[in-house]
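YM 10:42: NADH-quinone oxidoreductase subunit F sequence, as discussed on the call
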Amino acid sequence: MTLTSFGPANRIQRSAETHPLTWRLRDDGEAVWLDEYQAKNGYAAARKAFADMAADDIVQTVKDSGLKGRGGAGFPTGVKWGLMPKDESINIRYLLCNADEMEPNTWKDRMLMEQLPHLLIEGMLISARALKTYRGYIFLRGEYTTAAKHLNRAVEEAKAAGLLGKNILGSGFDFELFVHTGAGRYICGEETALINSLEGRRANPRSKPPFPAAVGVWGKPTCVNNVETLCNVPAIIADGVDWYKSLARDGSEDMGTKLMGFSGKVKNPGLWELPFGVTARELFEDYAGGMRDGYKLKCWQPGGAGTGFLLPEHLDAQMYAGGIAKVGTRMGTGLAMAVDDSVNMVSLLRNMEQFFSRESCGFCTPCRDGLPWSVKLLMAIEKGQGQPGDIETLLGLVGFLGPGKTFCAHAPGAVEPLGSAIKYFRPEFEAGIAPTRADNLNQVVTPTMVGA
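YM 10:58: structure's back
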C-alpha cells in the first residue's frame, strides 16, 4: 500500500506539522506498537486532555476545529458530540467506532488500524473523556483479520500501561474498549444498523428520531464515529484549532487533511494524506501518475462505488465536499477510482448494482424491489436484449430511489452512479436495446434493401 506526502515523495517528507494522521508510519509498513508510538509523542494529547481540559472544553475544541465525519456523510463531529445528553445522572453511555469499511474501492481505515492501532485508541480515549462514555466498541469488518489482531494487541498494551481500564492516568475516569468483529454486511456502515448488529439483532437501520445520542446501544446514549474521524482528534487536542484549520488549501470549506487515493489502471495506485482542497488532477497526475501506458481515462468516481461518475474535464475540482458537489456528486470516502476506455459502462454498472442489491437489508420496498429490478434491466441491456423504454425505466428508478425516498441512504448511494453513467454514456446503454419486431419488418420492406 503506497503512502506519500504533500508533494513528490523524494522532495517532501511526512512530518507532524503537515501529516497528523500518517507521520508516525513506518517505512516498512509494520505496525507501530506502544513503545514506538509513545516515543513519537503518542498519548501526549490524551495526557493533555485528562490533565488540563474539562469534557466540555474538548467538545468545544473539536467543534471549533471544523472536523467533519470521514466516513462519507461529512457531518460536523463537534456538533454530533454536542447532541449527547448533558445530564450527569445518565452514567451509562457508549462510544462506537464504525470500522465496518465495506465501501467498494475504500481501504483507508484498514491502513490506520493495521499500522497505527494506538492512534485510533488514543482518539477514542480522548473522545470518551469528552463524551463521558464508560465503554467503547470498535465495530470491525469481519474480513479485516489483520486489523483485528493488531487492534486487540494494542488494546492489551494500553491496558497494561494504564491507558485503558480503571482510573486512567489517575483521573478517576474509567473506560473499557472492545474489538467486535461483524458478520459482513455493507448496511452495517449505517450507524443504527451497526447498533442493531452489535446488540445481536438483524442489521436493519432504525427509524430516526430518536437518534443514537438519545437512544442508542441497549437504549443508552451513544455516539458513533468513523475510524479516520477519531484518528484526527489527538492532533487537534495536541496542536490546536488554528493549526488544524491551516492545513487545508485555500477555498476549501473542510478543515485539516484527508486520506485520499486512486485505484484502477493508474501507474501508481495508492493512498495519501493530503490537505482538503487539493485538486483531483493533482491526486490523479502527481500522486497516482496518470493512466498506465496504453490506457485512457474515460471517467472516475471521487469516493467509492456510491458516488457518481465524473469526466476527465472534472479533474480540476477541489477535493472537499463542496468542491465535488459543484461538479455534480459527493466526495464520499475520498478514494477515487479511474475507469479506463476499455471498460463498458453497462457491464460496470451491472456489477455495481448487483453488489448494492445483494447488500440491501430488504426493509423498505423501493430498495428491496427497485435495486434487483435495475440489475435485471442492466443484465438484459448488457446482453443486447434490452427493450425500448428500459433506459427510461432505469432513470425512473434513479428518481424513485433517490434521497428522501427510502428508509436510509443505501439506495440513493446505489443509484447515484447509475444515473450519472446514463447521463454521460447513454449511447452505450442504447447500444444494448434490441430492435423490435416492427423495426425488423420495416427493415425487410425498405426500398433501399430491395434495390428500388
